[in-house]
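User: Once you have settled down, look closely at the record that follows, taking as long as you need, and be ready to discuss the fold:
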Amino acid sequence: MAESANNERFENWMEHINRACGPFAGQLLDGGFQGSLQEYHANAMKLSVVDIAHARLFRTQHEVARGNDAWFYAVFQLDGESVLEQGSNQAVIRGGDITLIDASRPCSITYSQRAKQISLLVPRHLLEQNRRSGELPCAYRLNAEMPVVKMSQRLLHESMKNPTLSACESEAALEAIICLLRPVLQVRDALPSKRDKQLERVMGLIDNNIQSEELRPEWIAFEAGMSVRSLYRMFADKGLVVAQYIKNRRLDLCAQALRTVSSTEKLAGIGYNWGFTDHSHFSTAFKMRFGISPGEYRKRWQ
């Protein structure tokens, strides 16, 4: 009976996790499950406070395909210990530490003892802007004693105390946290390999021709001097799909334009400028990536 009740509590908790954080699978560990989750939404600041013991969360390609790849999870450990794994990296984080998880790639989080952490959704375009080479160091421990880590923790907690933050204020707080963490994330970059450099050149080729209707995998492969199969494999090694990357890159540039162009600029024109010939498709794709329509996005920035 006790085991059945434990399983039911875990299933209910997993449903809450999937609603708040996106698709995850789960596994009970020995020791007796405990779990709670609180959601905080203050415009741009979307986060969950997770209190859990004796369980494992993970995302396979199946969960990744069902989720939204427009995010990173910035994990702020409050208490206890968690083990986070992604790719070949493993981070054991304790109170005050921070790590990063990419929502577009499989991962796992193990809670062998009681732990409490905040999971902050960070829009991919904010972390990856002005960046082409190398991967962001996911599942890499950012030590609690680092000054920028302390400041990031403090800013996050202060933001959580003010649920009435306006859209602009919450955007500013989120960007400030990212700006604080960006230098230490860049410092952790490995030297790019020959394949990374080749991927960087291809991404540069995409950026330089992002408005062209000819921008398709076959054209890119020809211009880069490789086979289409090699192009697909190179992107797949980074957990990417060529066509999806192009679409997301165009959407990120549209978002950037919405933040900077005149409010009189037509939305359909902005989408068209970056390769979206159908406004309905542009609006739907934009909302899937950023959670709001292009019009709402522009109003938030205004």
About this structure: The longest helix spans residues 167-187. The chain is about 50% helix and 25% strand. The domain at 194-301 is CATH 1.10.10.60 (Arc Repressor Mutant, subunit A).
